[in-house]
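Ticket 4471: requesting a sanity check on a complex prediction with flavin-adenine dinucleotide. Repro inputs:
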Amino acid sequence: MLKNYDIVIIGASAAGITAGLTARKYYPQKSIICITDVSKVPIPCGIPYVFGTIGDAMKNLIPVENMCKANNIDLVNDKVIKINREFKLVLLESNESYGYQKLVIANGSNPIIPTIEGTSLENVFMIRKDPSYLTTMMKQIDESKKIVIIGGGFIGAEMAEECRKRRLEIEITIIEMQQHCLQLVYDEEFTILAEKALIDQKINLLTQEKVKKLVGHKAVEQVILESGKIVEADMVLLCIGCSANISLAQEAGLRIGPTRGILVDSYMRTSDTDIFACGDVCEKVSFFDQKPSNLKLASIATAEARIAGRNLFENKRKMEGVIGCFSTALGGLAFCAAGLTESQATAKGFEVVCGVGESVNRHPGLMPGAGNMKVKLIFNKKDTALIGAEIFGAISGGELINALSVCISQKITAENLVTFQAATHPALTASPIAYQLVNAAEMACVKLN
Ligand SMILES: Cc1cc2nc3c(=O)[nH]c(=O)nc-3n(C[C@H](O)[C@H](O)[C@H](O)COP(=O)(O)OP(=O)(O)OC[C@H]3O[C@@H](n4cnc5c(N)ncnc54)[C@H](O)[C@@H]3O)c2cc1C
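Returned structure tokens:
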């Protein structure tokens, strides 16, 4: 049976639900439906915490039903199997179809499975955004003695820490092919601190090691590395990233970009102007040089969704490119980054000037909740604009990095940062004399002088 809607959205995770809520605000008269193929949508960034801190996949859900109900958005639990652009409808697995005036594709990404032998052995898991899969995975963690995590990015590191929280006695090993874990997101001095936070929790790190194959009879037993080393394992977690879910769009003849995402313009329109795409499924360009970017983050997905949802019937908002702003917490310490690291900036051809500010985030330092915070700022020497920031230490860094992301987006300079007026308070921040980001900017100004 065919039902018609003004706006049809595929997916109801970070991008899909945000696109729907945004569209509802600006187009109150339009009928909207979200279609999701999972009955319960997990908070994707909360997934690692399901295994330790939260302890239950069903307690880590986006309240999609309530959000839709409160905003007059219809919600259906079904899978879109085809987009028919000629008749402007989507076909569902149940054989229902929905006609659209405007379609938003927000069907996200799937974990990458490496092309090595043994990934289909029992007890080899990836990080799927599906609570029932995560519950099965949790049961296996409870039965395992030697967990090997392939990939030492932020998901692998968070998974390792949460497995440790759940099981104090077991062996946990991360295998990472770069020189350091988290190397793709932080400069070396921060990756060393992050590795220390993991080692302190008795997590083994095998860096500069590439996995050759997984072996076992029925279930996985060993991870064989290209160096010849063998790591015993009764559970393996694949944490090597994700790829855009482009098959629906591809079959519908929409253009695909160089990083294998759905190609969109800065208004989030695909090559069909009645179809928008946002989130992990779509192609991105870097804010810094407009070159293709592989970044896939919830912060990007929701920003894109706010642009797509607003622009459905008029071009109002523009995407200027992805900055890349994200954080993790390891060993109770914040590791945060926005924009380019010093090494990424240099690799992109920027001449950079960096400054570092480090101090306790209360004044005096004996105030409750005091902790050390280190801020590194990276400026473009040419125009002295902020192009990157990294923060380590006190958890308030998790919010400070967001303010720095705004500064990057607005091309705020080192001098702007030195002279800005910060609210400081003994119980809440560093002293105005030792304010980390100001002192980091001042160090850069001295070098630029
Ligand atoms: C373990 C983990 C931790 C993360 N931590 C962070 C973090 O701390 N910070 C951060 O910024 N980012 C983080 N990310 C990245 C973030 O989760 C993604 O960028 C974000 O989920 C993208 O949202 P999305 O809505 O585009 O896609 P998805 O979250 O992938 O959602 C797509 C939805 O569409 C549904 N769907 C797919 N195909 C169909 C279909 N044919 N019909 C109907 N429905 C369909 C899917 O089931 C899914 O619910 C993390 C990712 C993972 C896996």
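Notes from triage: DSSP finds twelve helices and 24 strands in the chain. Leaving this open until the requester confirms.
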